[in-house]
From TrEMBL:
Coiled coil: none annotated. It holds the Pfam family Kelch_KLHDC2_KLHL20_DRC7. The keyword Lipid metabolism does not apply. It comes from the Bacteria. SMART domains: Kelch. It comes from Alteromonas aestuariivivens. Keywords: Kelch repeat, Repeat. This is Galactose oxidase.
Length: 338
């Protein structure tokens, strides 16, 4: 009688320990992207912008002039809004006060796209567009990273000559109230086709490449280094940890003090990257989460209703296929996964 009990008693702690170790080892795997079904239709687009304002997700710009699409997350319904006055693509939109801001965009066809000379504003409350201040001619570029800190817009890196050449490492600050520009120190690495994020008092430039059709290197010159600009000291540094999966066309977002990098494109033709990678500045480590259901590049990320959201983009290297799908990941899972 005692032997079976003894054997059971020995096995029980072992199984529990194994289970606990498995949970600890795979705790990051609990975060999963989910398909989100919405009523109505959106316009497939890529090299476009995504931004969340309150509980509305906005898709705007991209190749061709198309109406803006707004997804009301409470109702799960797509609504069509006003189209931009010109073609705007390759930009990272940001929200400030009552408007969505587009700065550092490109316009025109591949491969010689031109930098858009002006900032553009979209006002969600009145569904209208407005041409904003000019970007200094000598500092114009597109496919740049853009972030907002207080009332200051930061324009990071980008390309002055579309996909042909012209990648730069510039950093400029635009005071949205005073309408004044300031040139800041150049970043350690030139890059384009990337996105930036703010964590605390630091700007992070993550992903991207040095696009150069002139040397037949459109997709191959990837930048795995993460450049960090300290807003207090006005100095750049480079993280010792490289981006685990180098790629361009990625979406980047700050999530509860951590850097989230999702999707992208590289020299691989198909499919687009679906990797979801998170960097924790406190422990200086990268963690891989389960990937997107559909790899994509040329889109963005937003936070609303307890989820990280993404939509549209291209499902393979280049511009096709343009996607009309929406995915979301529970926000607490990303935080708990670290």
């Amino acid at each position: 009688m005692s032997r079976p009990f003894s054997r059971y008693y020995v096995r029980l702690p072992l199984s529990l320990w194994c289970g606990l170790l498995l949970v600890l080892f795979n705790q990051h795997a609990t975060a999963q992207w989910q398909a989100f079904s919405a009523s109505g239709e959106m316009h497939p687009r890529h090299e476009a912008g995504l931004v969340v304002v309150e509980k509305n997700l906005y898709l705007l710009g991209g190749r061709r002039i198309q109406p803006l699409d707004m997804l009301a997350l409470d109702s799960g319904k797509w609504m069509t809004r006003a189209a931009p006055p010109i073609e705007l693509h390759h930009f990272q939109p940001v929200f400030w006060q009552d408007r969505i801001i587009i700065a550092g965009a490109l316009t025109g066809p591949y491969p010689g796209e031109k930098p858009v000379p002006n900032i553009y504003f979209y006002f969600p409350a009145r569904d209208s567009w407005q041409k904003g201040p000019e970007i200094p001619e000598s500092r114009r570029r597109g496919a740049a990273g853009v972030v907002i800190v207080g009332d200051v817009l930061y324009l990071i890196a980008g390309t002055t000559n579309g996909h042909i050449s012209g990648y730069v490492n510039w950093l400029d600050a635009f005071d949205l109230k005073k309408h004044t520009w300031q040139q800041l120190p150049d970043a350690p690495h030139s890059r384009d086709h990337f996105q930036a994020a703010v964590i605390g008092n630091k700007l992070y430039a993550a992903g991207g490449r040095q696009t150069s059709q002139a040397t037949k290197e459109v997709f191959t010159r990837l930048i795995p280094q993460i450049d960090v600009f300290d807003l207090q000291t006005n100095r750049w540094s480079v993280l010792p940890q490289l981006l685990p999966t180098p790629r361009a066309g990625n979406s980047t977002l700050a999530v509860n003090g951590k850097l989230l990098v999702v999707g992208g494109e590289s020299q691989r033709k198909s499919p687009a990257h679906n990797e979801t990678e998170v960097y924790d500045p406190e422990n200086q480590k990268w963690l891989s989460l389960p990937g997107l259901l559909q790899g994509r590049h040329g889109s963005g990320l937003g936070i609303a209703d307890g989820y990280i959201w993404t939509a549209s983009g291209s499902g393979a290297r280049g511009g096709k296929p343009e996607l009309n799908s929406v995915e979301r990941m529970p926000l607490p899972e990303i935080v708990n996964g670290l």
